[in-house]
Amino acid sequence: MSDQNQRLLTIVCESMLESFLQEELPRLGASGYTVTDARGAGRHGRRGGAWAKESNIKVDIVCDAEVAQRVVDHINREYKQHYALVMYSTDATMHCVSAR
Length: 100
Fold this sequence. Notes:
This is Transcriptional regulator. Pfam families: P-II (PF00543). InterPro entries: N-reg_PII (IPR002187), N-reg_PII-like_a/b (IPR011322), N-reg_PII/ATP_PRibTrfase_C (IPR015867). By secondary structure, the protein is α+β, with helices and mostly antiparallel strands. The protein is built from two helices and six strands; from the N terminus they run βαββββαβ. The chain has helices spanning 18-28, 65-78, and strands spanning 2-14, 34-38, 40-42, 45-47, 56-63, 85-96. It has a four-stranded antiparallel β-sheet. Strands 3-4 form a two-stranded antiparallel sheet. A hairpin with a 2-residue loop joins strand 3 and strand 4 (45-47). The longest helix is centred in the last third of the chain and has 14 residues, at 65-78.
């Protein structure tokens, strides 16, 4: 077992961006990601998820710092002006178990 220092980048955005992100994240270097439904309230109002136009997703990406910055730059350039979204990141340690 070896631990690896990585970044955990989280993107909370309108669910209509999911299909775009599914195509773009691998191209930007993300080897994997997790998508979950997200509900809450913030600067863009309440997002209850009762219908498609008010549903949000949360995308978690564990990657190195270079990939995280590439994804942040891409999201800022392509989507931030037109869609409600927030991104944040933190250090993360991956606890990997070697395959037998």
